[in-house]
Amino acid sequence: MTPALSTHLFVQHRLTTVVLDKIQNAGFPRVEIFCARQHLDYRNAAQVGELRHWFRDSGLTLHSLHLPMYSDDVWGRTGPNAVVNIAEMEKIKRIASVDEIKRALEVAEQIPCSYAIQHVGVGGEEFDERKLEAAFSSLEELNLFARQRGVEVLLENIPNKLSSAERLNYFLGITHLENGYCFDTGHAHLGAGVEHEFELMKHRIRSTHIHDNDGENDIHLFPFLAQGGSIDWKRTMTLLRSRPGQYVMMLELREAEGMEPLLDNAAKVRDRLHGLGRQEELE
User: Fold this and answer.
1) Which CATH fold topology does 3-274 show?
2) What is the pLDDT of residues 15-30, one digit of tens each?
3) Which of 33, 45, 110, 205 is deepest in the core (most CB within 10 A)?
4) % of the chain surpassing 90 pLDDT
5) By percentage, how much of the chain surpasses pLDDT 70?
6) How is the beta sheet containing 205-209 ordered, strand by strand?
7) Angstrom distance (rounded) from CA 156 to CA 191
8) Where along the chain do its domains lie?
9) Rounded CA separation 279/281 (Å)
10) 19-77 confidence digits (pLDDT tens)
């Protein structure tokens, strides 16, 4: 599996070419950019243009964009109108969310990438068939917009009642949409379990998010290195390696006290995971 790193690790800081240089020098050949406006302001042509020139001359590949969760630059703290939600039932708010996501997808016109990662609903959202209808309407529009830019929209399993593996399969089954999945290990661990979620999602997985947690909180821990992590990484990597046509091993870690230097420790996680799951067989 090709190692990769999400800039989620630096999401509280402005994304600069200096950061990208450091990621490349740490030995990561691919990257996912997290589209949060305090980090990458996708509305800012100057910032996007600077990154476009850097990618053009570098060996680092932009694998994917993580589409925005909020439209402001303070993680939604400006109020509920900043929440980006493709399953929003109020039409005017849903349209605003789709428009915000399109602004982020326009980055792919400047910096080509293969995938864009999209949430269905927000964290903790309850199930409602009407929300699925709203998400279907949103994704029909976003899929077309993304394809025109050479990008496939992947749906991520997240901790809510719309986006478990079962519910994502149900959603795609009734809508006949052909989106692939981004399999998130930490979110699966918070739900029915990594193995259960993987078995339901495996035929559509195109990319991953790799991080750990305590089974109760979505805290994006460094596997092996941070206290509190409880995922069985040997078995998880065996599962991930069991499918043909391997996807990237995308680390989606969170900056935390005690994890400095961040990139050195991210590289240690990468190297330890890289050695797992090669010869082992599922029991």
Assistant:
1) TIM Barrel (3.20.20)
2) 999 999 999 999 999 9
3) 33
4) 96
5) 98
6) 205-209, 180-184, 152-156, 115-118, 61-66, 30-34, 3-6, 249-251
7) 13
8) 3-274
9) 7
10) 999 999 999 999 999 999 999 999 999 999 999 999 999 999 999 999 999 999 999 99
Partners of residue 64 on adjacent β-strands? 32, 115
* Residue 172: both structure tokens together: 């795609």
- Residue 28, burial from CB neighbour count under 10 angstroms (0-12, 13-18, 19+): buried
| CA pair distance 35, 180, nearest whole angstrom | 20
pTM above 0.90, yes or no: yes
| Burial (Cβ within 10 Å: 0-12, 13-18, ≥19) of residue 278 | exposed
Task: Write out the DSSP string of the chain.
Answer: --EEEEGGGGTTS---HHHHHHHHHTT-SEEEEE--TTT--TT-HHHHHHHHHHHHHSS-EEEEEE--SBSSSSTTTT-GGGB--TT-SSHHHHHHHHHHHHHHHTHHHHS--SEEEE-SS-TTPPP-HHHHHHHHHHHHHHHHHHHTTT-EEEEE--SSSS-SHHHHHHHHHHH----EEEEEHHHHHHTT-HHHHHHHHGGGEEEEEB-B--SSS---BPTTTSTT----HHHHHHHHTTSSSPPPEEE-----TT--SHHHHHHHHHHHHHTSSSS----
Compute the average pLDDT of residues 188-204. 98
